[in-house]
Amino acid sequence: MLLYIHIPFCDSKCFYCAFNSYTDKFQLKYEYMKALKKQLKYNLDNYVLKRDKKIETVFIGGGTPSTIKASEYEEIFEIIKPYLENDVEITTEANPNSASYEWLKNMKNLGVNRVSFGVQSFDNDKLKFLGRSHNSNSAIKAIQNAKEIGFKGINCDIIYGVQNDTMESMKKDFDTAFSLPITHLSAYSLTIEEGTKFFDRSSVKIDDEELSYGIFDYINKNGFHQYEISNFARNKESESKHNYGYWQHKEYLGVGAGAVGYINKQREYPHKNLEEYIKNPLFTQIEKIDDEDIKTEKVLLGLRCSNGVDLELFDEKEMKKINELVKYNKVYLENKKLYNTNFLLSDELALYILD
């Protein structure tokens, strides 16, 4: 069982961000955290304790978790402590401008052992273009602080496919990242989503498959192996156990406004609106997921990462298609699992097999 905790507050709204986050509702922080703890207790009692489960990983995301004082997380950690597995991975996202040395140290003392920095770029002009509120120096310093404090895992997010990006400009970003004490790198292609400042501005994004392949190859050559379409790790131990849990279709609790839970073959959606969530944090809208949809998700997710897909999921017709793909070296079979040789083709391969 995984646990995701959503913090919806941000100092500023990035121009590409479609996540449930607010820059103008900081006055609701106290009431929000109070409501979040209520939902957390309820979910742990009903989905973990009563089912004799344990929490394998915790991920605090947002929004910007570092906009909340570390002291305000203390009760959350007290609540979840009895439910945690011994070797639990606990990750917090953080923005370089708000994740001070003191904040990072206090979060580490609470039990966080992995930190994920939303750096996006080390180029100050690109950061301004994306609407980021930090600069290159603050990002470098934040990562160095995390290492000094003793975090076991340090991730750096980088965005590519932005207007004016070239292989040379991206190499500069990645070279800076490689010079820092990171254990994990997430390289995301810019997506344009409705409700963002970049929506209706298609010129800000470049679709360049050659650039994607060049980036993947460059990251791999610099000692980070790709284990998912956007994720790279220095070694097996540095892979994100939490994200891997999603890709393995494990159950997860989603706590907070707009967070999503997945329990008993159904998704649970709390209120997305902050005020509504505070009024009733135990409200959930239920979406039942049938076996066919679960199969489709397992195939799509398994082909996007090194986890692969169990062959027992496929019928005779689908296995014929898979064997065809094997002949053309598009996929391979090993230990009763299907594996993808090219993560960028994962969606097309899944659709071909399942059609």
UniProtKB/TrEMBL annotation:
> SUPFAM superfamilies attached here?
Radical SAM enzymes
Main location as per UniProt: cytoplasm
Quote the PANTHER family the UniProt record gives.
COPROPORPHYRINIGEN III OXIDASE (PTHR13932), RADICAL S-ADENOSYL METHIONINE DOMAIN-CONTAINING PROTEIN 1, MITOCHONDRIAL (PTHR13932:SF5)
A Pfam family in this protein? Radical_SAM
Question: Which cofactors are required for activity?
Answer: [4Fe-4S] cluster
Cell compartment(s), UniProt: Cytoplasm
Official protein name in the record = Heme chaperone HemW
* Described purpose of this protein according to its UniProt entry: Probably acts as a heme chaperone, transferring heme to an unknown acceptor. Binds one molecule of heme per monomer, possibly covalently. Binds 1 [4Fe-4S] cluster. The cluster is coordinated with 3 cysteines and an exchangeable S-adenosyl-L-methionine.
The Radical SAM core domain sits at 1-228
Gene Ontology annotations of biological process type: porphyrin-containing compound biosynthetic process
- Gene Ontology CC: one annotated term: cytoplasm
Q: Which PROSITE patterns match?
A: RADICAL_SAM (PS51918)
